[in-house]
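Protein modeling request. Please complete all fields; requests missing the sequence field cannot be processed.
Requester role: graduate student
Desired output: 3D structure, token encoding
Chains: 1
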Amino acid sequence: MTTRIVNGTAGIDGTDGGDGASGGAAIASAGGAAGTYNEAEAFGGNGGNGGDYDNGAVGTGGNGGLAKAVAARTAETTYYYVTATAEATGGNGGSGGSQADGSKGGAGGAAGAAAASAAATNTLGYAVANATAYGGNAGASGSGGPSGGVGGRVTSCTAMATGAQATAMSVSTGGDGGTGGTASTTGGNGGAASDTTATATGVSFAEASVSQTGGEGAGVLGSKPESAGGYGASSTLNNAATGTTQGGYLQLFQQAFGGSGGNSAGAKGGNGGNAVSDMADDDASNAASSQSATLTLVSTARAGYGGSGDSSGGVRRAPRHPTSASSAMRPRRFMRTPQPMAGLAAGSWPAKATAHPAGRRKPPPMP
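Delivered output (367 residues):
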């Protein structure tokens, strides 16, 4: 077992109107040939808060740190589980400082981006790869400050599992925008999540699951007629969950969720993000030895809600295929339920991960 946890250095708060320092980057990598479980966790450092001041300058929040996690577990030949888990969380931006009378405020710090990659190979047994990435949240502007910043991006989140039986799961969530101050016209937009994929290659059983959620737009404290909440980020998936078996049982799940728009005390709330989830059944195009006896496809898209005020919801685009597809889609050679490996009790397939960093939004559960 190899576990690597890396925490980026937290930024120091500004004093007497000084700027907060940026948080440090965190890069974690777990690999090697020994053991059956490798885990890498990276947490970008949070930016320091901007300093308050009674008169004169006010500090801006420090930027959140980048987070990148890579876990690999390969070349195992065991009848038991081999697992690779990678989790990355971008640092949050620091809050902007404020003058005592609320007439002036500093900008919030930018949020840190995140990327995660997990790969597991087990030629005789069960291979499990889990990748999770969260963009950091942007810092709020100080009272009387400018518009809020954009939430942290997820630049990539990939999981690949290859084994006699294989499960790959990839979950990404963009960071939330920063709240705009009373002198601003907009809240910060949600951060985008992109390049979220999962691939499972098995013999008797394979499952690949992908969930991608856009960050939420932030509210704005200003009551100007033109004030508007931040936009929720859109989310698009196109054949993001893929896999093959050799005459076995194949399950592919993918879900895209747009972020919700922010609220506004002035003119209107922010628009919700759009959601697109497209998936096609291309198993028949594989060589006969790599086609599955049973195939299940589930694709879900749900747009984000608009913020309160004169707001608009996102547009939901239906997938090109039915939301659930099974062996009725095309003839199958036979139906077979995957059997547990030697040394494992029936019904002991690995549960889907539900843990998430404290204070972060948890994506909706997989089917």
